[in-house]
Amino acid sequence: MSATPATSREWHLVARPQGWPKPEDFALREAPVAEPAEGQILVRNIHLSVDPYMRGRMNDVKSYIPPFQLDQPMDGGAVGEVIASRAEGFAPGDHVLHGLGWREYAVVDAARAAKVDPGVAPLSAYLGVLGMPGMTAYAGLLEVASFKEGDVVFVSGAAGAVGSLVGQIAGLKGAARVIGSAGSDEKVKVLLDEYGFDAAFNYKKGPVAEQLKEAAPDGIDVYFDNVGGEHLEAALGSLNLKGRVTICGMIAQYNATEPTPGPRNMVNILAKRLRVQGMIVSDHEALRPQFVQEVGGWIRSGELTYRETVVHGIEHVGDAFLGLLRGENTGKMIVTLGD
């Protein structure tokens, strides 16, 4: 257990990025640590999550989640240790998952915190494979894309926290073939050798449509989209009749300063009777018990594996986020502040 500190460091958004975020768009500032009120807990954060969706929250636009406010602390997934509690069911020494990351200490409403057990899985796993990315992969493939045994599945951004799990879950559920794209030869090797993809390619080495056609000469049935842009256009060309697309992310255009052109072959949606559906993971909470039971079992049995890219220190949260946007991570990007 830790003593209550007088101050905490936290990251603020100080300018709305135009195009790619820059280090000067963020500031690490010191703030006093408040005592928890009734129904609240004080948490020392141990692991912080940075995720692609956070880029959208840096724009002052209406969306499914409110934008970050200028000169206010940013937030995101975090796992930490309770060091003070005024909430029934939480005691100092407990470990919790909550949404007030990007800072060292957080006063959290107990209703918005969930206990996690470091004896079941490493604490960082609750931000990745057993957290939001894992749930996104599970729900996005099985519920949104209506995956069925024998499907041929293509995943873009396949070496990331979500994509790497989509491919493995598809394989465990009986996919006929799993194909992934990634941004380096090293990541392609990870997809093939560690995650068990049947085929993978480096999208920087040639047109995506050509490489996908070579990897899936008989077409694909499911496309799990983390990238958008050229990848989506290629997938629309390769999808078979009544194929399904889960739109999970479009990282290729998150930092665009001008409107990006849509796929030029959207007529395929009509001609092939495709189903293209966007997803937000919070819409699928009813699946969580099934997700925890099944994915937890695969982790314990060794059938499902995962990677983390770990950055150390509160000083480097901004660097970790920018690195994530540049594709410097394999698996989940985690910032570790302590034990």
Structural account:
The chain is of the alpha/beta class and 339 residues long. The protein folds into 2 domains: 7-128 and 306-336, Medium-chain alcohol dehydrogenases, catalytic domain (Quinone Oxidoreductase, Chain A, domain 1, Alpha-Beta Complex); 132-282, Rossmann fold. The protein is 24% helix and 25% strand. It is built from 9 helices and 15 strands. The protein has helices at 53-57, 132-144, 163-172, 185-193, 208-215, 229-238, 267-271, 288-301, 317-325; strands at residues 7-13, 26-32, 40-49, 78-85, 95-98, 105-109, 114-115, 152-155, 177-182, 199-202, 220-225, 239-247, 275-278, 308-312, 332-336. Strands 3, 4, 5, 6, 7, 14 and 15 form a 7-stranded mixed β-sheet that branches. Strands 10-9-8-11-12-13 form a 6-stranded parallel β-sheet, sandwiched between helices. Helix 2 crosses helix 3, helix 2 (132-144) crosses helix 8 and helix 5 (208-215) runs parallel beside helix 6. The longest helix has 14 residues, at 288-301. The N and C termini lie close together (11 Å). This is NADP-dependent oxidoreductase.
Q: Return Rg in Å.
A: 20 Å
Mean pLDDT, all residues: 94
Taken from the alpha-carbon principal axes, the silhouette is globular
CATH architecture tag of the largest domain: Alpha-Beta Complex
CATH topology of the largest domain: Quinone Oxidoreductase, Chain A, domain 1
Please, what is the CATH homologous superfamily of the largest domain? Medium-chain alcohol dehydrogenases, catalytic domain
How would you classify the helix and strand content by structural class?
alpha/beta
Number of strands: 15
Low-confidence blocks of residues: none
Q: Name the CATH class of the largest domain.
A: Alpha Beta
SSE order, one letter for each helix or strand: EEEHEEEEHEHEHEHEHEHEHEHE
Structurally, the number of domains stands at 2
Number of helices: 9
Helix content: 10-25%
Main sheet record: 7 strands, mixed
Distance between the termini: 11 Å
- β-sheet strand percentage: 25-35%
Keywords: Oxidoreductase
Domain Enoyl reductase (ER): 22-335
Protein name: NADP-dependent oxidoreductase
GO molecular function, one term: oxidoreductase activity, acting on the CH-CH group of donors, NAD or NADP as acceptor
